[in-house]
Amino acid sequence: MTSGPLTGVRVLEFGAIGPTPFAGMQLADMGADVVRIVRPGTAPLRGDKVVGRGRRVLHFDLKDPAQIESALALTARADILLEGFRPGVMEKMGLGPEVAFQRNNRLVYGRMTGWGQTGPLAKTAGHDINFIALTGALGAIGPAERPAVPLNLVGDYGGGAMFLLTGVLAALLHARSTGHGQVVDCAMCDGSASLMSAFYGLMAEGEFVDRRGSNFIDGSAHFYATFECADGGFVSVGALEPQFRNALMDALDVPAEDPLRGFATREEWPALRDRMAAIFRRRTRDEWCAILEGTDVCFAPVLSLSESPRHPHLVARGTFVARGGVTHPAPAPRFSATPGALRDSAPTSMEALDADWGLVGI
């Protein structure tokens, strides 16, 4: 039995990579009935043991007119459709928005791309790193020497899947109040640009320099950075505000009038950061955890993927779940009245969907 705030919502997800399956996972975790359509013989997606959870899976040859018709039958009963192909691909298959709306004018049609449905680059290939490069996000992350690649978190998931989720759920509210669906054009370049809103705002106020490795929140300052410890492990400190910075310096036995306690200037940060680095190299990561963790100094150890699920705080919250020998991040966010749940995926058939989706007679 499903649970979650989206119980009863039907989602049709066309197999794709990157943000689309992650959005499908999130909707399934929140209780939606997500049916994923994949081509026969398609290899599992990378990371699909986790990201592919919670769906019923149909294998359709979308070059076969009969199976296109079956996909349209599902579209007629879906609340949300998700697709992540290049612009025009769904139209070529006969599954574009105009056709879909003829079957179901309440449908929310979520389109996930890198460049968007329009614009000079719309039909060109690209990946997460390219989309965030264009918006200033990639250029702002990392040391002065070169941009640091932030995995695919900023484009695929932050600027892509999360904006797709916001868009289709907002459009679903609109469809339920008006009876009319719509297309949600979600582009990673748009979403990652939106993620940079605060920094464009800070730059307009003269508080952010358009130069990587020069700002208070990009690792340049001595009070907001990562530091290597005696054992080669790393810790993070984020003591932005004076009260947290003073608490940190008290714990590090820094004298009251020492410049380390101040915000200082960009010109002073490199020398102060070197001094902080020397302090943290005096002890191991675990020794610093024993001194600083659980206090108001804005501190945490930098954990690996295998270490993180064992941290006492995350264990206490059940942030990770072991299932079938695989570590899963648990469904997030958490709902007090309608908690989501982690569910397995399984193959299905049109016949098996008849009762739940009301396909008979379409």
Describe the structure.
The chain is α/β, with parallel strands linked by helices and 362 residues long. It is built from 14 helices and twelve strands. It starts with 9 loop residues before the first strand and ends in a 5-residue tail after the last helix.
Summarize the structure.
This protein has helices spanning 19-29, 48-51, 65-75, 89-92, 97-103, 128-134, 153-178, 188-195, 197-204, 242-251, 269-280, 285-292, 312-317, 350-357, and strands at 10-14, 33-38, 55-59, 80-83, 108-113, 182-187, 224-228, 234-238, 299-301, 320-323, 326-329, 346-347. With 362 residues, it is α/β, with parallel strands linked by helices.
Annotation keywords:
7-stranded parallel beta sheet; 36% helix; 3-stranded antiparallel beta sheet
Shape: elongated
What fraction of the residues are assigned to beta strands by DSSP? Answer: 15-25%
SSE-based structural type = alpha/beta
Task: Please trace the helix and strand order, writing H or E for each element.
Answer: EHEHEHEHHEHHEHHEEHHHEHEEEH
